[in-house]
Structures are given as C-alpha cells and as structure tokens.
Write a structure and sequence with these properties.
The protein is 38% helix and 19% strand. The strands form four sheets. The chain has a seven-stranded mixed sheet with strand order 1-10-7-2-3-4-11, sandwiched between helices. Strand 3 and strand 4 form a beta hairpin. Helix 1 packs antiparallel against helix 7. The longest helix is centred in the first third of the chain and has 31 residues.
Amino acid sequence: MENNTETKKMKKKTRKRGRKRRILAQITVCLLLTVLFVCSAAGGAAAAYYKAATRTIQTDTKTALRNADVVDADLVYDQDVVNILLIGCDKRADETEAGRSDTTMIATIDLKNGKLKLTSLMRDMYIDVPGYGYHKFNAAYSYGGVQLEYATIAENFGIRLDGYVEVDMAAFREVVELIGGVPMDLTEAEAYFLQTAYVNSKHGEKNVTAGSNMLTPYQALAYCRIRQDVTGEFGRTDRQRKILISVFNQLKSQDIMTITNVCMKALKYVTTDLTEAQIRSLMTSVISMGTTEIEQLRIPYEGSYTEGRLSGNGAWVMQVDYELNRQALQYFIFGTGEDPQIQDEYGVGNDRFIEGYYPEKTEGISTY
C-alpha cells in the first residue's frame, strides 16, 4: 500500500512538472507571436479554453503574405523552420491612415533543431522599398501595409516568411493591466526622461522614480519607446526586450486560469493571416519542443552599418551593408552559409542623453 501511495505521488509530481512545462511553452508562444511581445495568436494556457480564445482572432486572408508580390523561388526556405512576421503599429485610435510599423520582428520556430528565435529589424534602416525607392524601413508598412513590408524584407534579405501577426498598442496595455504591472529598474536618466517628457500626461508616467518600479501599462509603454539617449534606436529595442523578459517572468508565476484570461482578452487586438488550424499546429509543435529559451538577433548587427543624416530632409538613418546582414540573417534563421561570429553588445540603461535632444526639448511624444 505504501509503495502504491509513493508511486501515485511520483506520478502526480511528474504530471505537474509536465503541465508546468507545457504552460511555459505556451507562454513562450504567446510572447513570440505578438510584436509587443505579451500575448499570442497561439495563446490559450488550457486546452479547454483554446477554441473560445481562438474565435476572437481576426484572420485576414486579403493581406496574407502568400499574396505578396515576391518571387518565392529566389528566397531561402525550409519547411521545418517556420518564420512569422511580427508587426506592432504605432497607429492611434483616432487615426485613419495605416501608420508606420513601430516594431518589426521575425519569430522563428525551428522544428528541426528544437529552437525558438527572435530577430529585431531596426526601423531606421535606409532600405530599398519595392516600387518606392529608398526610405526608412518602417515606411514600407505605411505605403503598402504588411504585404509591402514583407516584400521589402524578401528583396533585401532573401528569406521567405510563412505568415504574420499584427497588434496595436492597446494589446500591450491590456496585458500589462491584466498581470498587475511590469517590474523594472530605471536609471536616473530614464526616470528623468519619463518624468519630463510626459509631465502633462494623465496616466502617471511622471510618477516613476530611479530604481525599482512596478510600471503601469502606460508607464511600461512609454519606457519601451525611449530612444533619446546615446544608444538611440538600439537602446529602444533593448528596452522592449527587457519589457518582454519582465512580462515573461510575470506570466510564469501566474496560475493557469490567469494565463488563459490574459491570452483571451488580448487576442481581440491581434490580426493575422494564420488560420486556427495553423495556430493550433504551431502551438502543438512548440509544446512538443519543450524549450522556453529564446535566441535573439538584431539587424543590422554591430559593425555592419553607419549612421547619419540624409541630405535634403535631414532624416537620421542607418546606412546598412545589406549583403552582410542578408548572410547573417540567413545563417541565424536557417543555419546556411558560414557563421558570421556576431557579437551584439549594445546595452541599455545609459545615463547620457544626446546633446540638444533632452526631454524638455522633445515634442510630440505620446503613448496613446
């Protein structure tokens, strides 16, 4: 009898560990399949709630990537490596135009090697947008939506993508609200920037302090949009990554019902060309992989670009060596070619702001 009791206890522990592992895998999918990193079209932390959650997904076949004007034969592809384009748009509720893509990433589910990967594409890259000539990368979305953004990636980096997920800023705020805030340590400069740049805001950005904070939805969004220090756009992207990790850790500590609730409520802000069957397949694949680690890359990588102002309009852009970055991206995602030995060390939390670009002189900042 005692042995039977011990066996039952061991089986119960094993089931709990397996369940926890599945939950963590599903959280990872949630983080991968939204650009603002907090909830996913593959969401649902319990199978019983999955169908109810996925019914809220807005599947848009008209903007499917398969209909984009690209030549698939010229693109690197592997049926065992799934690549999802993640777009976060800075369009506000009162805007009627498409807006520009505020954040663009590629989420990679490498079924062959059991890996999850995330690639950031910097929005200030001066890039050839098919049919429009050279512009900042984030202009592609404004000119032609998700399909033109994909065509720009395909032409310049030579990779095929399998689908997209797009969210707006409301999804980010919704999820942060549901998990009770995001813990974050702020430098003196970061705190000062938020206090000064958002001094007239009614959402409390000015109430943050240097050191430990539990950021509210609006404070968290304001934090991950900072790019006025010497790290510029790289610092902004790294802050977004810090927010992602913090949200990930917050979600890991929640119970299964809370996780499911977060996913279901955030899904209404998601638009995708993925069908429910595709999403279910991706979720099942990630769960079977069992990994919750995310490998990361930023394009352009350090040493492959220069920065400066354009003659004419004076826009600050990144002049990129696209051949080097094409090779680096293809190696990172598919393992093709030679290892470029990239060492991306940018760092965040810098306490030096760009001269003449202090918060009190910055106009037009908004998180809503």
